[in-house]
Amino acid sequence: MRIAALVVAIVVLAVLPKLATPYYVTLVLPAFAYGIALLGFNLLFGYTGLLSFGHALFVAIGAYGAAVASSKLGIRSFELILLLSGAAAVAAAIPVALLSVRYVRIFFGILTLAFGMLFHSFLFKFYDLTGGDTGIRVLRPSLFGNAFADMDKTAFVIGPFYYYCLALLVVLGLAMWRIVHSPFGLHLAAIRENPRKAEYLGVRVRFFRLVAFLISAFYCAVGGVILAVNVGQADPELAYWTHSGELVFMTVLGGFTSFLGPLVGAFAFIFLKSELMGATQYWRFWLGAILALIVVLFPHGLVGVGRLAWDKVRRK
Amino acid sequence: MTAFADVLIGGVFHAAVLFLVAAGLQLVFGVQKIVNLACGSFYALGAYFGISAVTWAIAKGVPPGAFLPVLLVSGLVLGLIGPAIEALLRTIYHRDEAFQLLLTFALVLMFQDVLRFFWGANPQQLGDLVMSYGKLSAGAVVVPTYNVLVILASIAIAAGIGSFLKHTRFGRILRATAENREMSQALGVNVRWMYASVFTLGTVLGTVGGALVVPTAAASLDMPVELVVEAFAVVVIGGLGSMRGALAGALVVGLMRALAIRYYAELEMLAIYLVVIAILIARPAGLFGKPVE
User: Would you kindly state where each structural domain of chain A is located, as residue ranges?
Assistant: First the structure.
């Protein structure tokens, strides 16, 4: 059932560029980017039980990695950019994670928030290095060595780049599925449910939290690279704490207690935001109201609502 | 010497305002265990509403010199939104901290547009009313009298809260509830009422802080999200839930910002976050907080 639905979803996404207007197709790309980032984020939040309010930091590292690699170092291969940005994010995540995983709950959240804001003020204030508030341009990368020089930007983004990112989402999604269902994933769940008991049973709690943190940083960086290539720019707002808040928002909107929840959340959030922005200048208010509603009434998110409805239908 | 005094006074002024907001954050965290991201929104609301209140009062014939009391009253009146918001938060007291944090984040988003709806996207200012209070000078050091008044008002409020928590019956019950909610409830404390009043008090501290700062700085839509990270820094440095910590933290953050702005502007916020991280590593409970698990 679930697999059939997934295959249908992938097929729909695959034929979408042929059916929908380019505007909607360019909307799907950020959803791919956030989908990948949130898969990683939810390994830490949903599966390990650590709520980070600073993961926009790693999205920003991914985006600036793409910007620096393409604009300053002249690297155009998308594969190489992904690897470099991912490696940069993991390298930055090591000290951050080493310090943060000593804490749980609200202290973990505040510490990650502080690290995110540290990076934001670095990006914002050190104009010569980072371009300040305008950021750095991201040049069009080549995919598998093919530069697609004959296409204009939109054609590239909704054409080859779209399929590349869809494939990336599927591959990284499968990898994450393996991770959460491996013994490693079960360890994380044990840590979430009862860290003290897990420790008593011989689980190296901090080490596992650390590894989950690093994996999540890598996924967020990949998401950041896609976002930056799509926009053509990396700017400091990517690292701001409200952006971290949006990551949490999307995850909870879709449902952090299920594997696919964050993906559903990413798509729902992007379309909701774009529709609201088109309809009213007060879209933040309605986004906030929807978030409040989800938090108060539907803590399992859209996937949870769907499950409840499905159960009702089946029982009839 | 003059430079030193300028930094000192500028820093203490900023600290005085930060303390008010952070004290609200601490009260609410201490009793309800909720970290309220919307404290910055209350602050911004206080600032915008203060501008409108003063403009309105002056149009009604109140002498411009009386704007300080008008600001204080407008901040207190805004506290009325406290019980309504507490009623919303009440639905999630028993839930995971992640949800509590997210619900206050939802409030941040909503308030952002409430401010935009009533006051527009452009920053608002109160003109040069501050100057109607004149300046104080000691040697080469010149300070607007208003800034000194705000510092004094903040000290008075700090002392007031301190003795209120220590010596009144309500204060004792409040501290008992913060210490052990179930036990206080078992002993007959009306916890629901206690929560509503504490949250309202926390809200008032934020709105008054915003109202007091607005004659010296413009109110803008960035205010809420920018202030909240500073207030966070204050409570982390001082220790979550501790009033004395809020005071110490506000002084550290206020003075560091003033120093950084004067000598190396690039470091302004960076320096504060570095201190926060250093404190969390060396003393996770903050300067005055209780040890964390």
Answer: 25-315
β-sheet bridge partners, residue A234: A136
User: CA-CA distance, B164 to B180, in Å (whole number)?
Assistant: 19
Q: How far apart are the first and last CA of chain A?
A: 19
Res. B159: pLDDT tops 60: yes
Residue B7 near residue B173, CB atoms below 8 Å: no
pLDDT tens, B101-113? Answer: 889 989 998 998 8
Q: At what angle do helices B2-32 and B169-179 cross, to 10 degrees?
A: 70
Q: Residue ranges of the domains in chain B?
A: 19-220
Taking residue B61's Cβ as centre, other Cβ atoms within 10 Å add up to 6
Assess whether pLDDT exceeds 90 at residue A37. Answer: yes
Q: Is B184's pLDDT higher than 80?
A: yes
Give one DSSP letter per residue of A144-196, joined into a string: TTB--TTS-HHHHHHTHHHHHHHHHHHHHHHHHHHHHHSHHHHHHHHHHH-HH
- Residues A209 and A50: beta-carbon distance below 8 Å: yes
User: What number is the ipTM of this complex?
Assistant: 0.83
pTM: 0.86
Name the interface residues of A facing B (CB cutoff 8 Å). Answer: 45, 51, 53, 99, 102-107, 109-111, 113-115, 117-118, 121-122, 125-126, 240-242, 245, 248-249, 252, 281-285, 287-289, 291-292, 295-296, 299
pLDDT band at A221 (very low <50, low <70, confident <90, very high): very high
pLDDT of A218 reads 94
Closest CA to A106 of B74, B69, B232, B254: B232
